[in-house]
Design a protein that fits this description.
alpha/beta, eight-stranded mixed sheet
């Protein structure tokens, strides 16, 4: 069949399926009814929960697994972020964790047989004055020791890579240089969730949507079942991967987590022709920008530090994001914003995740990722699956155990201001 005829056939098929209610397409995964018991129940059907289920089945051979999602797959933070993937973190514990994730992302489309649209376009953190550039150089040296690919580039190279940046030395946010990670990039957030869901289901995992966890059943100090909107489900072990709702589920299990939930807002412009090749972040302002495959300019910034579960934007934060970006990219000032949204993220005292056993036996935690959850999905799933399968830490997850707060062994990544 010629290319022209093939495209025409595909177009007619799309139109026919739209009117028929998509009767001719096979679902990517079966939405199951829950059974009475499983070996492992993963609470949370976002990226981390789905990846955990997939690696339990693929790596550890544990297939009697249920993923419980109170809404629909990809309807939480996994579908409400700005898709940035990178590993340029300061502390060696963080660098190892996120570098594992980048490495897994690099082969994930082939691994899942599903195109997640991973684009390693690179990321630059702009320095606006000489002292900031010197601080970046020190950070880069620490990252190199940890094995992270990172380099400091001068003003001329920065402007060559992003020619729309205002080159004037009298600009409000002048360009003095940048920290560059070439392996960084973006992926399609929905595709990551759908790819893991399909691959996990193909290995026997039950994906159960519209199933809200409302309580836990404990026997002799150990959690043995969850009480849900679709009945009681028993298991040997339970994993908790519910992002901004972690504290609420922890209270149902009888303990407190040192986390606070905030709204992280983002927005996109109307689509335009390709004009930004890289992800660009201003550490001083917290604002960042990239261009999606659809041509929209994706923008975001710092957390709204008012504790909230509201998944919506607000003008004050929008202004704080857009204003510095327009100073840096004056030519974008005529574009219209198309939409804005928010995701609920849970942040820990040291801006690093909590991975490990909960204070209640039988429950394991994957939470506290703050603004870094999407980029860590493959690594978070790998480490959580190891915990659930063996009951022991993986060497990479051990520094992020819940007990580090009592021991004072923090992995403080708050120095960078924003950790997208």
């Amino acid at each position: 069949m010629s290319t022209h005829k093939s495209l025409r056939y595909s177009g007619w098929r799309l139109l026919r399926e739209a009117f028929r209610g998509q009767q001719g397409w096979t679902p990517a995964w079966e939405d199951r009814d829950p059974e009475a018991a499983y070996d492992v129940v993963v609470i949370g059907g976002g990226g981390h929960g789905l990846a955990t289920a997939y690696y339990l089945a693929r790596t550890h051979g544990i297939t009697r697994v249920a993923v419980l999602e109170k809404g629909w797959i990809g309807g939480g933070n996994t579908g409400r972020n700005t898709t940035i993937i990178r590993s340029n973190y300061f502390h060696p514990q963080s660098a190892a964790l996120y570098d594992l994730s980048v490495s897994l992302y690099e082969t994930l489309s082939r691994e899942l047989n599903y195109n997640i649209m991973f684009s390693q376009r690179g990321m630059m953190e702009i320095a606006h004055d000489q002292p900031e550039l010197e601080t970046m150089a020190r950070a880069a040296n620490a990252m190199r020791i940890s094995g992270v690919d990172i380099e400091v580039i001068d003003r001329a190279e920065t402007l060559r890579r992003e020619p729309l940046l205002d080159p004037s030395p009298r600009a409000r946010w002048p360009v003095c240089g940048a920290l560059l990670q070439r392996r960084a990039g973006t992926a399609r957030h929905d595709a990551v969730a759908w790819g893991y869901a399909r691959a996990a289901a193909a290995r026997g995992v039950h994906i159960i949507q519209n199933c809200e966890v409302r309580g836990f059943t404990t026997e002799r100090g150990r959690i043995v079942a969850v009480q849900t909107s679709r009945g009681v489900i028993r298991a040997e072990r339970f994993g908790l991967a519910v992002a901004g709702n972690s504290t609420m589920l922890a209270r149902l299990a009888g303990f407190e987590l040192p986390l606070q939930s905030y709204t992280l807002q983002a927005m996109v412009s109307e689509p335009v022709k390709p004009c930004l090749d890289m992800v660009t972040l201003s550490t001083s302002t917290g604002s960042y920008i990239s261009q999606s495959d659809k041509g929209e300019l994706v923008m975001g910034g710092n957390l709204d530090r008012s504790p909230s579960y509201a998944q919506r934007g607000g003008f004050r934060v929008t202004q704080s994001v857009v204003a510095p970006l327009l100073e840096m990219y004056p030519s974008l000032s005529t574009l219209k914003l198309m939409r804005q949204w928010g995701g609920t993220v849970d942040t820990s005292p040291d801006n690093s995740p909590i991975i490990g056993p909960a204070p209640v036996e039988g429950l394991y935690l994957n939470c506290g990722w703050g603004t870094g959850g999407f980029k860590a999905i493959p690594a978070g799933g790998t480490l959580m699956a190891h915990l659930l399968a063996t009951g022991r830490h993986h060497p990479l997850s051990e520094p992020f155990d819940h007990g580090r707060f009592a021991r004072g062994e923090l992995v403080d990544e708050g120095h960078a201001g924003v950790a997208h």
